[in-house]
Amino acid sequence: MLEASGESHTKLPMQGIAQPTRAEVLNLPRVHISQHPVMAHKMRLLRDRHTASPEFYQLVKEIGSLLAYEATSSLALREQTIETPLQETKAYRLAGGIGVTPVLRAGLGLAEGFRQVIPDVQVWHLGLRRDERTLQALEYYNRLPHEVDLQVCYAVDPMLATGGSAIDAINVLKRRNIPRLSYIGIIAAPYGLLRLSQAHPDIDIYIAELDEGLNDVGYIVPGLGDAGDRQFGTF
Ligand SMILES: O=P(O)(O)OC[C@H]1O[C@H](OP(=O)(O)OP(=O)(O)O)[C@H](O)[C@@H]1O
Ligand SMILES: O=c1cc[nH]c(=O)[nH]1
Ligand SMILES: [Mg+2]
């Protein structure tokens, strides 16, 4: 994490940048903020600085499952006839392929949670790393297939801070011409949420909680720290 205690004349990346308040972004179109009490309970544990990496990773997976359940509630279904041990009956299956794109590294735990809900999801890995001096996202890994047959793809990344990484991830996915894209995150700052919503007004955005803002070095406050480092024990 970049320390705020460097040379006094060095401008920190978010210093002096105006940020919207929570109230100003609460009613953005296509933004869904979880209202589930189980989510709030898990978020308390996740944010706590005393939660160690193994439990933290487990919680990210569980929150990923809860968010997947919420985000997939409007997926299309196809009817089919099956036989129970007693008789034929109508039943339903999810229509079309579903993809999940974990933004490495921190998105990996969320994607695992997503797979607990929909095991046959395709996983498309995308590596983006935020340069902590400029806060620009840099792409360093891309395993997105070129032959695409998905009805929907979910970009998953726990932290929506300045929004740069999420905007870039959706840009990359849009080049694959998938009919429907969504973003799933755990915590958003109002600044990043507004930027993502304005850059990509055609996607749904699902988050667990909306925080107060970004500090001078671009970390979400109160936040949870570095979601990648906390999942993988790299401090
Ligand atoms: O909204 P932004 O300002 O772009 O910041 C958010 C990004 O920063 C974190 O990744 P990081 O660069 O720390 O990589 P990591 O997952 O490997 O830790 C996080 O997981 C997002 O990808
Ligand atoms: O607060 C933040 C901001 C970006 N990335 C993180 O992991 N945490
Ligand atoms: Mg990180």
From TrEMBL:
User: What Enzyme Commission number does this protein have?
Assistant: 2.4.2.9
Q: Which GO terms describe its biological process?
A: UMP salvage; uracil salvage
Gene3D superfamilies referenced in this protein's UniProt entry, alphabetically: 3.40.50.2020
Cofactor annotation: Mg(2+)
Q: What does UniProt give as GO cellular component?
A: cytoplasm
Q: Which family does it belong to?
A: Belongs to the UPRTase family.
| NCBIfam families the UniProt entry points to | PRK00129.1, upp
Q: What is this protein called?
A: Uracil phosphoribosyltransferase
Q: What organism does this protein naturally occur in?
A: Tengunoibacter tsumagoiensis
